[in-house]
Structures are given as structure tokens and as C-alpha cells.
Amino acid sequence: MDKEIVLKAIANDTRMSILTLLLRHNYCVRALANELDLAEATISQHLKVLREAGLLVGEKRGYFMHYDVERSALLELAKEIEALAGIEREGCRPEDRNDCPAVEEQACPKKGQCDDEVKEFCHGPGHGRDDGEGEGHHGNCSCHKS
Amino acid sequence: MDKEIVLKAIANDTRMSILTLLLRHNYCVRALANELDLAEATISQHLKVLREAGLLVGEKRGYFMHYDVERSALLELAKEIEALAGIEREGCRPEDRNDCPAVEEQACPKKGQCDDEVKEFCHGPGHGRDDGEGEGHHGNCSCHKS
DNA sequence: CTTCTAATTAGATATTGACCTAATCATATT
DNA sequence: AATATGATTAGGTCAATATCTAATTAGAAG
Q1: Are B43 and B11 in contact (CB under 8 A)?
Q2: Is residue B26 part of a domain?
């Protein structure tokens, strides 16, 4: 499941409405168009977006398309967002360039002692100073300053 | 919480990256810009979107802004999506215009007997027939046809 | 096999969104 | 007070999205 595609699909008022309508009932495309006061072609395109996100499966029955919502896809998305919320803060490890601009002041093991590489990472080229003083505000990466 | 605004906020790759970075560490705007290879102004705009969606709270500390992710907002969103998946199919009630274009064939209490109003709702004006036959494919709303 | 009809696709247009540079703002430091 | 700096806002450009009408496709029905 491509999270971004699914999110984009439901991050639209019209498509969210289509989804909730289809969760409760079957609707043909024209019924959706009537209900939402949009052209059938417009609904069709929204349905395509929802389909391609894996949120709907369509089946043709007689003249009509019948769409079913893939509730499992919604549940999966909910899980992923929940997991996001569960990501924990990591400690500051200035020796690892990618971990530098980190965590709360009190948790930082190298408060006020970031090396040049770290300074450059935090503040960009030309912001770290080469004069070796390494003290005071400007020499610190963002996590070190009160 | 405005669900659509929150969804739009996270339905963007860059903003999702910002969010996951900030979940693990503090980053100043420039650090985010370096990390994601974008202009600071661009990051700032993304931060604004996330802030306005209630996903971040910012606090100025010294020179730097410190942003914290509102994990509760993410959890709330996850709950809402989960609730969405939990919406149940409702029975077909053709007597209620808004409930008509409904449910599975076997569950429909008025299979093949939709009245003109229902036909018009399902198929739009000019699709219901006035000849009173009311049988066969054309007289049925979408939920009645195999 | 021809006709009818629901749905989709094509093509056009207007709006929104993402990104940049430059200007401005707010706050620290001297 | 003057200056420096991190962040934000302003203004502009280009791409993506939402919507429409018109044309096409796919599948019944006669």
C-alpha cells in the first residue's frame, strides 16, 4: 500500500463523501453524481482515484458498476498513522551526522560541544565558525540552545 | 479537528518526512532544509501547513524554533479512519429517497419494485419510465439489478 | 447486428499547491 | 541602538488537481 496515494485519495472532500456514501449503500455513478451535485464524469474520475488507491473495488453488474469499499485498506492506513504517532524521540548523537539536530536540551550528551561537521549540518555551510572557539550560541546546534 | 485539513497536511511526501524527522529529533528549519534539500522558506511553509492542521506546536527558544509533533492529533486521526472503516452497510429503504440506491440484491426489500421517484433518483430525470410497467431492467434502481 | 445506456476517457480550463528568490520580521548579541 | 541571524511572509512560476462538456467504450436488449 502506498500511504501517500491513499492519503491523497481521501484528503479530498468529494472523495471522502463518495467513500462514506459507498460504505452505507450501493450507488450507481449517476446516483452519486445526483447526490453530490457533480457531473458523472467527475464522479468517475474520483472513483478512479479511489480505486487506484486500493480503497474501492468495482464490479460491473448488468448496466451498473457496483463499488465496494475496501475497509481493510482503511484499517491498514489507520494502523500506519497510529504507528507514526508511536515513533519515539531518539537521543542526541552529534557524532552521527544524521542524528545531530536532536532532542531536548537536558538529554543531549554533548551540550555546547558540537564539532564543525555538526554545526554545518545544523546551521548550513558558512554558519559554523572555523575559529575554534566552539562556545556560545553560534557554535551550538539547535538542540543545545535554551 | 478538521479531518480534511489534517489529511491534506500529511498527504504530501515532504510534510510526511518533516513529521517523521520531528518525531525523532529537534530540527531547526535550516537543518530540515538541509536534510530534505529544499529552501528554508519552503520548509517554513510546510511547517505552517502542519501547524495549522494542529499536527505541530512551535515554540521559539533563543534563535531557534522548536517544533513538537502533536502525537495526539495523529492518534485522533487514526481513530477517525478506523471509525470510517467501521461504518456498516444499511438496508435498502426505497421509500426514503435518500436511502434508495442501496445495498446488496439479496438484502433489498423492494427488489424490482422501485417507484418513479426512486427510479429518478437512481437513474436521473428521463430515465425512469412513466408507462407504469415497472418491470425488467430499466425500472430498477441500481441495487436491484444482478 | 444494431441500438441503447452506464461508465469511462479525452480534451480544455480554472484553481490549488509546491517551490524558489527576495524582502521582512523578531529576537539575540555587541 | 546597531547589527546579525533564524524564521516567516510576499510574490512569482510551474505542475498537479478538480471540474466541465463531448466523445468513446463496454455491455445489455431487442
Answers
A1: no
A2: yes
